[in-house]
Amino acid sequence: MRLLVTGGAGFIGTNFVRYVHSARPDWHIRVLDKLTYAGRRENLQDLEGSGRYQFVRGDICDPVAVRGVMSDVDAVVNFAAETHVDRSIMDAGSFVRTDIEGVWVLLEELRRGSPAGDSTRFIQISTDEVYGSVEQGLSKESDQLRPTSPYSASKAGGELLAMAYFHTHGVAVTVTRSSNNYGPWQYPEKLIPLFITNALEGQPLPLYGDGGNRRDWLYVEDQCAALLAVLEKGTPGAVYNIGGGQELENSRVARAIVEATGASEDLIRLVADRPGHDRRYGLDCSRVRTETGWHPVTPFEEGLARTVEWYRENVSWWSGIKSGEFRKYYESMYGGRLSAGRGPSAGGKV
Ligand code: NAD
Ligand code: TDX
């Protein structure tokens, strides 16, 4: 098996490449990654001498770069994307480019290089956010898509285009829609790594709105196992929900982080809400379970403990990130919100 992993130097990609490298010792893995602010070649540096791993820097929107890495592969797993909802609210341009146009470039190359009948697999990693906010119950793969943020709308565009290439051109596309991942190597802009690293630094934990929005949490190693199962046992033309089955209010997550890091609960601050903030997502994962046998095995408390330990042991990884371009981003995203002071001491109840 020769596997191309696009966006492999980001959070889930790094975990997936490491997982597959160890679980399938006869597979060759090539990563194509643009190395945006969210990607780090160093995450996978130790695999570079193994003879089974190759890193190529390049943009999935660039047909020449894509052609150069795709000609001899059996499967492509596409993680490459702009992924942070808050950044998509500030500026959606790069989301439209990478999450829609980039997917199109990958699909065009698959179509060109694989005349009908060829079976190069294409796994498009999508998200539960494409269903939009679901107040009650669980979304099934056949449900209507109602994305509400520029991020989720771009991801919906990418996966719909991918399925169109399955139906129209016979490209062997499979789509996965997963819930919120957490674990090692996650860029500290997302809720869990931001709150863990802020707690370790004694900085405030800015909780949006009333802290009552709910997410379903999936430990990243479980996500990797699910993706390998889908790659090996899933069906082209199918969509698979992949969830952790562990739904929590954000305020509970914040308190769990405070507890796991030994920080003070006073660090938790209620701040102005994210515009268009989806209240809840929930996934019915019976299809992936029935067809591949996969189910998540990591309880949230255990996954969080492992994640906190990883951030404690890898301070140089995240403190470097947080002292760079991130500072400007953090100030523009949180500076005004935090100084507006809706924290518990100012009356906001967590
Ligand atoms: P991430 O932001 O940590 O990493 C994204 C990676 O893609 C980075 O390495 C970046 O350099 C690379 N990249 C960005 N634009 C690129 C381009 N134009 N060409 C090549 N590489 C490019 O993201 P993540 O959290 O690891 O998410 C991976 C995928 O999983 C994304 O498609 C995301 O939409 C999806 N997803 C993530 C979650 C989650 O909770 N993190 C949940 C569901 C779905
Ligand atoms: O500072 C914060 N405070 C806060 O209350 C941040 C960054 C987030 N939140 C809230 C917003 C959400 O309700 O926490 C929840 C989780 O937020 P994020 O970590 O930004 O994730 P989310 O918006 O749910 O999207 C994530 O899951 C689905 C990923 O970023 C997406 O890439 C993925 O598709």
Q: How would you sum up this structure, described in words?
A:
- This protein has twelve helices and twelve strands.
- 46% of the residues are buried.
- It has two domains: 2-183 and 217-242, Rossmann fold; 191-213 and 246-279 and 299-346, UDP-galactose 4-epimerase, domain 1 (Alpha-Beta Complex), CATH 3.90.25.10.
- It has a seven-stranded parallel sheet with strand order 3-2-1-4-5-6-10, with helices on both faces.
- Helix 2 (63-70) packs across helix 4 (93-113), helix 4 packs parallel to helix 5 (150-169) and helix 6 crosses helix 10.
- Strand 1, helix 1 and strand 2 form a beta-alpha-beta unit.
- The protein has 350 residues and is an alpha/beta fold.
- The structure holds nicotinamide-adenine-dinucleotide and thymidine-5'-diphospho-beta-D-xylose.
- Residues 6-7, 9-13, 33-36, 38-39, 59-61, 79-81, 83, 98, 102, 125, 127, 155, 178, 180-181, 187 line the site of nicotinamide-adenine-dinucleotide.
- Thymidine-5'-diphospho-beta-D-xylose (TDX) is lined by residues 83-85, 127, 129, 180, 190-191, 194, 206-208, 213, 215, 250, 274.
